[in-house]
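Consider the subject:
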Amino acid sequence: MDISINSNRPDTIQAFNAVIQEISSDRGTTYVLITYRECPSCRQETTVNLVVGRDTLILDESGNRIPVRELQTGMLVNASFSNAMTRSIPPQSAAFRIRILQRPESENTTIGRVIEINQRGNYMLTMSTLNPSSIIRFNLTPDTAILDPSGRQICCLRFLMGLRVRVQHAAFMTASIPPQTTAFSIQILR
């Protein structure tokens, strides 16, 4: 059963084939950060932080209504949201409708050397070869596990600088330079 809303409202922006980059909650409000291209041939991506409220319609691939907790980082979605946005970076807007097009593949593994850790920005850069094109930015979440060579969890990122690590991460990557993805676990290699 496909539930639809009038998406031809003049105050609505449509984002097609958007990728969910991050999902967060604060004081009972859920935020879904998406990136999308405004046209198929556009190279620049647009990023918007969608404010998901009680009235936001969230649909699975079959058009069935689902709760916000079923959304995942890496999902491909179509979204409609208000053209009234904050002036923040990224801008925030009230989400009217989010429809899942494709769920993310489970995860991938990358091995590389840590070249930068930004604890304030919650990300880490790795390089797998001496070629700068092998740099990947891994976004870190509170759920990202940091493991020693034996697989025991450790708490501190600052000890990783310069070490070789194995990163389990989402199967999607942004088209940015460097590409970005979400790290699920980071293990120090011997």
User: Anything to note?
Assistant: The domain at 12-102 is CATH 2.40.50 (OB fold (Dihydrolipoamide Acetyltransferase, E2P)). The chain has two domains: 12-102, 108-188. Residues 1-6 have pLDDT under 50 and may be disordered.
